[in-house]
Amino acid sequence: MIKLPFKFFSKSNSHENDYLGLLLKEKEGILFLIRIVANSTNIIAKERFTFSNSWDNLVEDIDEVLYRLELKGFKSPEKCIFFVYSNLVDKYKREIKKTYILKIKEIVKNLELKPLGYIEIHDAVLDLINTKEKTPISAILIEINNALLNIFLYKNGKKLSSEEVENASNIVDSIKPIFQKMKVDTLLPSRILVYDSKNIEREVSEILSYTWEKDLFIHTPKVDIINEEDLTNSLIDVFTRQLEDKIVKEEPIIEKKNVMGFVIGGDVDKKIPRIEKNYFDKPKQFFSGILLKIKQLKFSKNILFIGGIAIIITAFFLIEYFFHKTEIILTLPSQVIEKSLIIDDLQPDISTNSTNFSVSKKTTGSTEIGEKAKGEVTIHNFSSSEIQFESNTILTSSNIVFLLDSDTKVASASLTSDASAKLPGKTKAKVTAKNIGEESNISANNKFKIEDLSDTDYFAINESAITGGTKKEVKNVSEDDILALEKEVQKKAKTYQKNKIDSEFIKTHLLINQLGSIKYGELNYDKELGEEALALTLKTKADITYVGLNNSQLHKKILPELVKATEKNYVVDKNNLKIKTTSAEQIKDKYIFDLDIEARASQKIDLSEFRSDIKGRNVDKIEKILSKKYKIEKLEVNVDFPIGFLRKFVSLIKKNIDLKVLYN
Fold first, then answer.
1. What is the pLDDT of residues 418-453, one digit of tens each?
2. Which H or E run contains 547?
3. Gap between the Cα atoms of 402 and 366, Å rounded
4. Angle (deg, nearest 10), helices 619-627 and 607-614
5. Which of 400, 617, 630, 660 is the most exposed place for a label (fewest CB within 10 A)?
6. pLDDT 10s digits, 358-370
7. Domains of the chain, with CATH numbers?
8. 24 with 88: CB under 8 angstroms?
């Protein structure tokens, strides 16, 4: 929309009970036109707008929105209320931060507004909950403002804490440290309220899908969304009530108070210079100057008549130039051309991007660690000869295996002095269980079999308990963990290759995926295979290579081939080509590409000539006029003009004819 050098409406003509509401965020805003009549408050217009250059061009951005509304017939009010997010407000001074207040003052001065003050979004949310639930609020409030989050902790209607933090790619990464900080002094309520002035389903989904630790919340927190409509209505309700309270409390002599840097109870300081915003003034001054000069001359009625005609023609031209818009949607026949080509004389361009990747996962391997039971046994030898047992000789008791710690020699048996009985040779020896674990701990006085020897000749007995065996299971790094991380880093690299390609390269090239590659550097694991660990991290660097054919060079090759198959008076639009690489091969320094091409050829039309053919024409006769010259399958004409009967005619100004061409 082109701005006129004047306005059709002025603030002085606006409804006396109309108010301008401005909801300001970090990068965007919403403008409301609010009308209060009797006990009814209505939003008569609402416009969302994005800041063109952060807050630097905010005056121009708001002026542009007001201008669009005035073209729709809405008048711009003088009285203004500002709605702001908490990150704009100093939480200790309870004032709008200096950076923002200076910009708001600039808005007030340049747009000739009378400020009534500001309302914090956070207060409107509290008012909404209190009105609905009639009980003191106990919840965590999360306010989302683009890249910033404000988090409030409430218990029984009392605010216990508030924090501001940057919004990470996953909101949980931002709010979890704040929750841990808040829970030091109090238990966190199991309710989270999330709000913004637009859709926030992604953030809420991330909070809901996260498994919160038991030390943060006793119960899984319930997450509620305060939608934009409820938030807007609550803002308007709070504003209306505060406005009513102000009117009731006003005294005949109003004391001026500085709120938010504005003067409340009187006009804005008149010492501040104003920027003239009545667009009618300059045309009025121009024509008044002409009329004044005419009055100073001696003139005839013919001069007045000619002057009047000139003014009428000028006014008509201005209206025609700025307001008479025509949209033409033209559907033309087309020819679909499909062709396969082999290109072997083009060198592709190569773009390489290096980046670092880091992936982690919980380990899935496990192993048993512990101590072996140790003790002492007495070995008995009833044979008639001495015997020596080597270290690691197996001794078994109740299926529990023990090993001798060292070589042990046992003397032969002997007879008593009266030869009535045989006495065994005996030797004490240290033993260690073969396996770790508590099951190797045994009580005293157990008999041990020694390997496969006869237990009538050889055996051992532990005269005291054998103890010290322990066992536990620990997590460690498995081969599956290593393979899983390698697959994950490959997946990340492929996603990066697909999504992070240089935008300028993809605009000017046909990407040849068959020749692209990913080369990984050294794979660095923070733990080794089998090492005890709860988590494993892999870090590596990847060189990602993109291969592409330059579009302009490629089009020079394929367009002549397509023209051969094109019907007479048809032309192939190079912007309407679909090119698919079915195969690509590199043989030394030569490249061969197999391409499938789908093109659409259409009737050749000179758009400038086309506009000349229809400008100023009667809408009902356009199709008949055009059908003699062009093959038209469908025609749709939409005329936008404030003067009713002229909507039957196409714009006289060629630039005001918006032509959209579609093809069947």
1. 877 889 999 999 999 999 999 999 999 999 999 999
2. strand 535-550
3. 26
4. 130
5. 660
6. 999 999 988 888 9
7. 138-227 (3.30.420.40), 281-322 (no CATH), 336-363+477-602 (no CATH), 369-472 (2.40.30)
8. yes
